[in-house]
Amino acid sequence: MATKKIIAICQSGGEFVANKDDGSLFYTGGEAYALDLDHQTQLKDFKHELAETFQFSARALSIKYFLPGNRKTLITISKDKDLKRMVNFFKDTDQVEVFIIAEEEEAAAPNVSNMPASVDQRFNTFAEFREALHKYSIAHGFTYKYKKNDSHRVTAKCKTEGCPWRIYASRLATTQLICIKKMNPEHTCEGATVKAGYRATRGWIGNIIKEKLKVSPNYKPKDIASDIKREYGIQLNYTQAWRAKEIAREQLQGSYKEAYSQLPFFCQNIMETNPGSLATFSTKEDSSFRRFFVSFHASISGFHQCRPLLFLDSTLLYSKYQGTLLAATAADGNDDFFPVAFAVVDEETEDNWKWFLSELKSALSTSEHITFVSDFQKGIKQSLIDIFGNECNHGYCLRSLAEKLNKDLKGQFSHDARRLMVQDFYAAAYAPKVEVFERCAENIKAISIEAYDWVIRSQPEHWANAIFGGARYNHMTSNFGQQFYSWVSEVDELPITQMVDVLRGKIMELIYRRRLESSQWVTRLTPFMEDKLQLEMSKARSFQVALVHGSTFEVRGGESVDIVDIDHWDCSCKGWQLMGLPCCHAIAVINCLGRSLYDFCSRFFTTESYRLTYTESINPIPNVEKPERSELHEATIVTPPPTKRPPGRPKLKSAESVDVIKRQLQCSKCKGLGHNKKTCYKVNGVGVEEPETPTLTVLGTDEPEGSS
């Protein structure tokens, strides 16, 4: 059966124009061609056909389109999966608008597409013409001087005496456009190239890269140098490119400051365009920014269809004024991350976490018991007690605990001893039964009583499955929403309102995409949970079931005997309670009774609940960058926070992973750590003395050491 084709209306050579009322984009001018697409079309073939149609290089074109019903956010097609997704989006409408944008290829020749090159070329202003002339002179290696330069006309000639190159531009009659009227492009001079280099100042380069830096905050100095070399033939070293980037940052500083001043309007606009959302901010006494919180209605509504489980985490921001982003993410029915709320704060403190949790509780408006998973060292524990009281359980992030244990063990124990203790610590955390937890703890005790005390005093009721009071569905770490934090890292240098709006757009697209994908599902459970259930079913086939009494059954399989209470969804293996899906023992009983397995699965894992999670949409926020001044709340002033990013590159500190523990030196003579036989003090009497063995830090009974 032939696959259904859709018509792609491919347009190029025009420009996008924004609607002043709602910010939607329309494409005007250029050429348009119709091409056929279907699910079998490969991106490389589509690009090749576009390249032939528009006379572009296939490597130098970018393909974009609008999502249905949203003409404010352009989606880029960069891989086959993106192309198939677009075809899927528009399969019911039979056609889609596609916009082809030519990008600059790497080449030795300078790029002169935006420079004065011919008579009748037009510019919007004289300033734009002068800037283009400056670029042109650098790219072509000569210097010039103005003969006439006023508000009506500009005449310039080559600075070398006797060279015939000259250009004349003036206003185009009955319009505001500037037009090149006369131009002699020929040069007879020599040696001007040397002089041209002096015109490429850091300020000029900063101005050139400013717009690109605004769109791509992570624009690297080496890429800047490469682009300037390619486009203008000027060689920059790393330092020159870095300084030019800093100048460009300073030129953009006004937009950073303006973004803070727009926060009152921005919060109001979020709640007007997305009713049911919560967007708030607060300032310090001097009106400087302190914190901003947002939770979109679509996220709030969607969370009520997810497990009552939230992961709290944070990430540093590397914008001009630094700060930290706090976030709460959930796990949807297919075990994918679901962004619920996030905040930008001046610094990560217990007070800011308490404020964030207070705003989160207001946004969610739920009395449901929630389990939180977070780093134990971030001062969140007391804040959760203060805000949610007995309505929550707090699970410590296993990864951060293991890193703390590994750090405290380092220096006193050998590599193998530490590896085994950390391994036993993980086993204790995942153990479903108390007796298994205790056995793992005893294994640690056999190596070190001090390490055993560390484990017992680190409040295992907050991290061990066997004795944890909440439901974390075997999710043991707080960085569950890692993809969300990767989004943040891509935009964290943008002004605050732009950064938040880009994240809004990504969440909006995520919701739309998952809603569309789930509409094709035919199983009662989500695909991920259906696979897990099928795996348990395969284990249950050889089990023997015997009725004990009432709803209680004995299940025998191999050497194990487990007790299942079908009415209370309970099994002695604890797998059913931990995961929310029937374990293999429960499945054996359910099959024996002729009941449906799906009646014994958590509702959060059903396809129906998943679709309800993604029912609501996030709407675009118009005028994000430049609201009308009359719309700004004059009574509320927000200025940038006083803390600024220190000069130079940010210093990144990478924590040692508990998964890879570096092997320490161990002396073969005295068995001491930190040195070898050659440098052993006991052997030579001189040299490096034996390092003092640090004592193991034992955590307190109320809070692990290092908690704030």
TrEMBL record:
The keyword Metal-binding applies. Pfam families: DBD_Tnp_Mut (PF03108), MULE (PF10551), PB1 (PF00564), SWIM (PF04434). GO terms for molecular function: zinc ion binding. InterPro entries: MULE_transposase_dom (IPR018289), PB1_dom (IPR000270), Transposase_MuDR (IPR004332), Znf_PMZ (IPR006564), Znf_SWIM (IPR007527). Keywords: Metal-binding, Zinc, Zinc-finger. SUPFAM superfamilies: CAD & PB1 domains. Residues 553-594 form the SWIM-type domain. This is SWIM-type domain-containing protein. It comes from Erythranthe guttata (Yellow monkey flower).
